[in-house]
Amino acid sequence: MRNLKTGNKEKRNNFEAEALPHMDALLRTALRMTKDGSDAEDLVQETYTKAYRFWDRFEPGSNCRAWLFKIMTNIFINEYRSKSRSPVVASIEDIDDSYLYGQLAGMEPAENPEQRLFAKILDDDVRKAIESLPDDFRLVAVLSFLEGFSYQEIAEIANLQIGTVKSRMHRSRKLLQKRLYDYAVTNGYIKEKAR
Amino acid sequence: MNCEEARELLYEIIDKEASEVDTRRVQKHIDKCRKCFDIYRFEGAIQDLIAEKVRDIPPSPRLEPLKSRILSELDAIDRPREARGRWPFSPFTRSLVAAAAAIIVVAVFLLGSDFIGESESFACLTESHRAATRTPNAFRDIGSTTGAIAFGREELTYAVAPHVSGFRLIGGCLEQLNGTQVGHFVYLDGPATVSVFLVPADYFEMTPELVAGKVERDGITYFGHDCGGCHLMFHRLGPAMVVTATTESSVDLVGFVPGQAAI
């Protein structure tokens, strides 16, 4: 019979070697998702304790990072996601594709109209724009922009159809571009386009 | 390829999700089309800007303290079970838990809630199952087939099967029955409905009536009980009681017990 104690030790060592290195990534995503430092810590801690309890289900050699993100995403959706759906979702259809491009087209310099804007946009503007996304969109956007997961990986992590991932990414982009434009106008980086 | 097609593929190309063929066709198009070229360049630049700004976040100072918190949490899980709680229930539990440990992992603390009269608790479950049969749509939203339910100070980590012999898991939720929080999962196969409840074990008393319904299947013990035309089956799992319920007399409820299908 296998010695239980040695078995536990081995499991613990494996877990620490495979799973703990991803804590940094999980925490930064948790921070973007919960928008609150102590919620983010709790979310990551819960993710690790659950992952440890289910460690025998992790297939060695498969993608541990994606597996941990899947666990964290489930907990986030079940326990942290705000219950009320944001009304902003309905207004997305009013935002044109390539919204920023449309707003900046015709501005000086005509060659690369975005250069002046991009030079001024701050990390904080981008962070605020992402945090302003509704939870479902923010999740997909963060997994893609921040963590670099593919559509397929995001579909598996968030338990979505790949088409849903695509459309949420598309809508997230529209909203992000609209927000960045609004910040740029409010902060005087650019002048609002005459209507 | 025309401009419209090229714009359709814009974000798939930027996200490097487009096929090689599409990527080549778009490349050919934007080599000739100034307007599309501009849009691709612009959107690519925004993508880079956003990715760079979001990734360029310094490591959180919270990381190190969090790491030690997590490590001590893992220590607590590693500690032998006996040190953290006692099994308040009968001897068959241990072998059951051993069998189910691969699927259901359980953290046990002591519970303090009071027993509720058996007929009252049975009726509550039957009623909740009937409600689910009437409005299965209330259960359509399930994030995942694994999760954890807090029973007061104790937590049950569960995994339910998405499919059981023709039935499909359509959802789950937390419910209050007699002031006790329970998990309720619903399976559908056409009009036939099966409810799976995860209930704190001390919600029930092991009455002689329940013990009389004892059945052994594959070396595992279940307790059957009929309540007003609804068949209930009880199965002890660590600190929880798994209760399956259906009004369909032909359905074998054993397969719906989390973990059993995989054992």
Pick out its properties.
heterodimer; A: 195 residues; mainly alpha; Rna Polymerase Sigma Factor, Chain: A; Arc Repressor Mutant, subunit A; 2 domains; B: 263 residues; alpha+beta; Phosphorylase Kinase, domain 1; 9 helices; elongated
What does this structure look like?
The complex is a heterodimer of chains A (195) and B (263). Chain A has 195 residues and is an all-alpha fold. Helix content of chain A is 68%, strand content 0%. Chain A has helices at residues 4-18, 23-34, 37-53, 64-80, 88-91, 99-104, 114-120, 123-131, 135-146, 151-158, 162-186. Chain A starts with a helix and ends in a 9-residue tail after the last helix. In chain B, α3 crosses α4 (34-55). Chain B folds into two domains: 3-55; 92-262, MucB/RseB, C-terminal domain (Phosphorylase Kinase, domain 1, 2-Layer Sandwich). Chain B is built from nine helices and eleven strands. In chain B, strands 4-5-6-7-11-10-9-8 form an eight-stranded antiparallel sheet. A three-stranded antiparallel sheet of chain B has the order 1-3-2, with no helix packed on it. Chain B is of the alpha+beta class. The chains are: A mainly alpha (195), B alpha+beta (263).
